[in-house]
Design a protein that fits this description.
Length: about 140
Protein backbone atom coordinates (compact mmCIF):
# COMPACT_ATOMS: atom_id res chain seq x y z
CA UNK A 1 0.00 0.00 0.00
CA UNK A 2 1.44 3.30 -1.09
CA UNK A 3 -0.92 5.61 0.76
CA UNK A 4 -2.26 7.22 -2.36
CA UNK A 5 -5.84 6.97 -3.54
CA UNK A 6 -6.28 5.11 -6.81
CA UNK A 7 -8.62 6.68 -9.35
CA UNK A 8 -11.83 4.79 -9.87
CA UNK A 9 -12.25 2.98 -13.14
CA UNK A 10 -14.21 4.48 -16.05
CA UNK A 11 -17.15 2.11 -15.68
CA UNK A 12 -17.92 3.50 -12.22
CA UNK A 13 -18.04 7.06 -13.59
CA UNK A 14 -20.19 5.90 -16.51
CA UNK A 15 -22.63 4.22 -14.10
CA UNK A 16 -22.99 7.37 -12.00
CA UNK A 17 -23.47 9.54 -15.10
CA UNK A 18 -26.16 7.18 -16.42
CA UNK A 19 -28.02 7.04 -13.09
CA UNK A 20 -28.25 10.81 -12.45
CA UNK A 21 -30.89 11.59 -15.10
CA UNK A 22 -32.97 8.65 -13.91
CA UNK A 23 -32.74 9.76 -10.31
CA UNK A 24 -33.39 13.47 -10.75
CA UNK A 25 -35.54 13.39 -13.88
CA UNK A 26 -38.09 10.83 -12.75
CA UNK A 27 -40.36 13.30 -10.94
CA UNK A 28 -40.48 15.78 -13.78
CA UNK A 29 -41.07 13.13 -16.42
CA UNK A 30 -43.87 11.57 -14.43
CA UNK A 31 -45.54 14.88 -13.61
CA UNK A 32 -45.73 16.27 -17.15
CA UNK A 33 -47.96 14.79 -19.82
CA UNK A 34 -49.35 15.36 -23.27
CA UNK A 35 -52.82 16.87 -23.66
CA UNK A 36 -54.31 13.67 -25.12
CA UNK A 37 -53.21 11.61 -22.12
CA UNK A 38 -55.85 13.22 -19.89
CA UNK A 39 -58.11 15.54 -21.87
CA UNK A 40 -60.58 15.04 -24.72
CA UNK A 41 -60.54 17.48 -27.64
CA UNK A 42 -64.07 16.29 -28.48
CA UNK A 43 -65.45 17.47 -25.12
CA UNK A 44 -65.09 21.26 -25.11
CA UNK A 45 -66.25 23.20 -22.07
CA UNK A 46 -67.43 26.80 -21.97
CA UNK A 47 -68.79 28.32 -18.79
CA UNK A 48 -68.91 31.36 -16.59
CA UNK A 49 -67.24 30.69 -13.27
CA UNK A 50 -66.12 32.37 -10.07
CA UNK A 51 -62.47 32.03 -9.10
CA UNK A 52 -62.07 30.22 -5.81
CA UNK A 53 -58.25 30.00 -5.73
CA UNK A 54 -55.23 29.74 -8.03
CA UNK A 55 -52.30 27.41 -7.40
CA UNK A 56 -49.10 28.66 -9.06
CA UNK A 57 -46.99 25.50 -9.24
CA UNK A 58 -44.87 23.75 -11.85
CA UNK A 59 -45.40 22.09 -14.21
CA UNK A 60 -48.95 23.54 -14.40
CA UNK A 61 -50.86 26.37 -12.83
CA UNK A 62 -54.32 25.33 -11.61
CA UNK A 63 -57.40 27.54 -11.45
CA UNK A 64 -60.07 26.29 -9.06
CA UNK A 65 -63.43 27.78 -9.96
CA UNK A 66 -67.07 27.43 -8.95
CA UNK A 67 -69.66 26.98 -11.68
CA UNK A 68 -73.34 27.58 -10.87
CA UNK A 69 -75.57 25.11 -12.69
CA UNK A 70 -79.03 25.96 -14.07
CA UNK A 71 -80.66 24.24 -11.07
CA UNK A 72 -78.69 26.49 -8.66
CA UNK A 73 -76.18 23.88 -7.49
CA UNK A 74 -72.52 24.86 -7.50
CA UNK A 75 -69.77 22.63 -8.90
CA UNK A 76 -66.07 23.11 -8.26
CA UNK A 77 -63.88 22.65 -11.33
CA UNK A 78 -60.09 22.41 -11.56
CA UNK A 79 -58.71 24.06 -14.68
CA UNK A 80 -55.19 23.15 -15.75
CA UNK A 81 -53.19 25.93 -17.39
CA UNK A 82 -49.62 26.47 -18.54
CA UNK A 83 -46.57 26.91 -16.36
CA UNK A 84 -46.40 29.98 -14.13
CA UNK A 85 -43.63 31.38 -16.36
CA UNK A 86 -45.70 30.97 -19.54
CA UNK A 87 -48.73 32.62 -17.93
CA UNK A 88 -46.63 35.45 -16.52
CA UNK A 89 -45.25 36.22 -20.00
CA UNK A 90 -48.85 36.39 -21.27
CA UNK A 91 -49.92 38.92 -18.67
CA UNK A 92 -50.99 36.84 -15.67
CA UNK A 93 -49.57 37.56 -12.25
CA UNK A 94 -50.41 36.11 -8.87
CA UNK A 95 -52.63 39.14 -8.32
CA UNK A 96 -54.52 38.90 -11.65
CA UNK A 97 -57.35 36.76 -10.32
CA UNK A 98 -58.54 37.43 -6.81
CA UNK A 99 -60.99 34.98 -5.28
CA UNK A 100 -64.50 36.02 -6.23
CA UNK A 101 -63.55 37.23 -9.73
CA UNK A 102 -66.04 36.15 -12.40
CA UNK A 103 -64.39 34.74 -15.54
CA UNK A 104 -65.32 32.79 -18.65
CA UNK A 105 -63.46 29.52 -19.19
CA UNK A 106 -63.00 27.74 -22.51
CA UNK A 107 -61.20 24.43 -22.58
CA UNK A 108 -61.49 20.67 -22.83
CA UNK A 109 -62.86 18.23 -20.27
CA UNK A 110 -60.89 15.41 -18.67
CA UNK A 111 -61.35 12.02 -20.32
CA UNK A 112 -62.40 10.47 -17.01
CA UNK A 113 -65.45 12.77 -16.84
CA UNK A 114 -64.30 14.46 -13.64
CA UNK A 115 -64.70 18.19 -13.10
CA UNK A 116 -61.26 18.92 -14.49
CA UNK A 117 -60.42 20.62 -17.75
CA UNK A 118 -57.45 21.81 -19.71
CA UNK A 119 -58.00 25.54 -20.05
CA UNK A 120 -57.57 27.10 -23.49
CA UNK A 121 -58.78 30.65 -22.85
CA UNK A 122 -59.87 32.66 -19.86
CA UNK A 123 -61.83 35.87 -20.35
CA UNK A 124 -61.36 38.41 -17.58
CA UNK A 125 -63.98 40.90 -16.32
CA UNK A 126 -62.37 43.71 -18.36
CA UNK A 127 -62.93 41.69 -21.57
CA UNK A 128 -59.33 40.58 -22.10
CA UNK A 129 -59.02 36.97 -23.23
CA UNK A 130 -55.79 35.25 -22.28
CA UNK A 131 -54.46 32.00 -23.73
CA UNK A 132 -53.90 29.53 -20.87
CA UNK A 133 -52.34 26.46 -22.48
CA UNK A 134 -48.68 25.52 -22.56
CA UNK A 135 -47.25 25.33 -26.05
CA UNK A 136 -46.62 22.00 -27.81
CA UNK A 137 -48.78 19.79 -25.58
CA UNK A 138 -51.02 18.54 -28.38
CA UNK A 139 -54.03 20.60 -27.29
CA UNK A 140 -56.25 21.83 -30.13
CA UNK A 141 -55.26 25.10 -31.75
CA UNK A 142 -57.32 28.23 -31.14
CA UNK A 143 -60.05 28.69 -33.76
Amino acid sequence: MTGRIEPMNASWYFGIAAALPLTFGAGAAQAHHAFAAEFDANQPVHFTATVKRVRWTNPHTWFFVEVTQPDGTVEEWAIEAGTPNVLYRRGFTKDSLAPGTEVIIDGYRAKDGSRRANGRDITLPDGRTLFMTSPRTGAPERP
